[in-house]
Amino acid sequence: MFDLIVKGGTLPDGRVADIGIEGDTISAVEDLSGAEAGEVIDAAGDLVSPPFVDPHFHLDATLSYGLPRINASGTLLEGIGLWGELKQIVTQDEMVERALSYCDWAASQGLLAIRSHVDTCDDRLLGVEAMLEVRERVRDYIDLQLVAFPQDGFYRDPTARANTIRALDMGVDVVGGIPHFERTMSDGAASVRELCEIAADRSLMVDLHCDESDDPLSRHVETLACEAQRLGLQGRVAGSHLTSMHSMDNYYVSKLLPLMAEAGVAAIPNPLINITLQGRHDTYPKRRGLTRVKEMQAHGITVGWGQDCVLDPWYSLGTADMLDVAFMGMHVAQMTSPEDMARCFDMVTNQNAQILGLEGYGLAPGKRASLVVLDAGTPIEALRLRPARLAVVSNGKVISRMPREDAELALPGRPETVRRRHKAGR
Ligand SMILES: [Zn+2]
Questions:
Q1: Nearest Cα to 348, choosing from 299, 386, 303?
Q2: pTM of this prediction?
Q3: Is 212 a catalytic residue?
Q4: Which CATH number fits domain 2-50+362-408: 3.20.20.70, 2.30.40.10, 3.40.50.10490, 3.90.1150.10?
Q5: Which of 78, 133, 136, 212 is catalytic?
């Protein structure tokens, strides 16, 4: 007797199977015809996936669009300035409320694990306190991993260093930084070194906003890889954005990528934001400013798509749907072969789970019973349609349901309802 069976769904690898759940754990992935369950979700013909994972977000700033004004130029630097104004006036309760609302959106989309940076450049650390509270309040349904992020520069801001260490003492999970925003290249490199040492001392992971510029000489990722190797942090370090790599010299990159692979440094491009913010100083041709995704993957480097922003000082759109993120990434990185498209889906599920170090993730016996049922037949169709999440299960509990989005047609001689699902071939 199972508590819940998800019946007849198609898994991302194409297998069709029933998933039997007991308590908060998957206990069977096989044909369960005749088995009894307290509750059954009919997923026949639908895609059943492990939950979506976002490896790069800013939950302390989300849903604040328009406060105290909008970002008129749309640039990264005006966004940082605007956030500086906003954090002087925002209250802790407002931050908690907005973050909880965002987590409702995320849950409805099957996005059940989020790594969020939290700004540590406020002596009161209101954002840190707010996000620690949110982490606690959503823990039954969303894994929230927090990164101590000195937005105004670990050295550049006079109290950022002390505040970042305080935030880690308060229980923030991951060490963050922003080397390209320090005053000089050498300050940036020094910040990478010290932040990696702090992480090694405390056995924490590292995730830096790294080289988020169009300057081909912004090469902090090289120092990050070197430090990861020196300090034995392989597999626990990520570089977010890495947009300067788009503009780097090819010879230099041919040396950099093997170094990153050897050092076990993962990459987190954020395609919605990178395509919006980069290349702003260019006339034409205008650079895309997305890092070298396929090239890194060819070197065996783990790459996961991140969302970064939803309705905040940097980005005026966003949906909490990782399929939107993967859809944009697939286009900008020209990942259009069937293998690459399927990989884009894998990036917002398995690859991102690996970057976060999530335990018990996946659709197999013994894993945590968290999954999402999508109105699509395959991962590629899910990317094309970004369809309804028919059911979302977190730790064995159904936490969200959504109807299919079939349209009712009024066209003579044509079907009464239409859904844009498609089977290849005749
Ligand atoms: Zn970010």
A1: 303
A2: 0.97
A3: yes
A4: 2.30.40.10
A5: 212
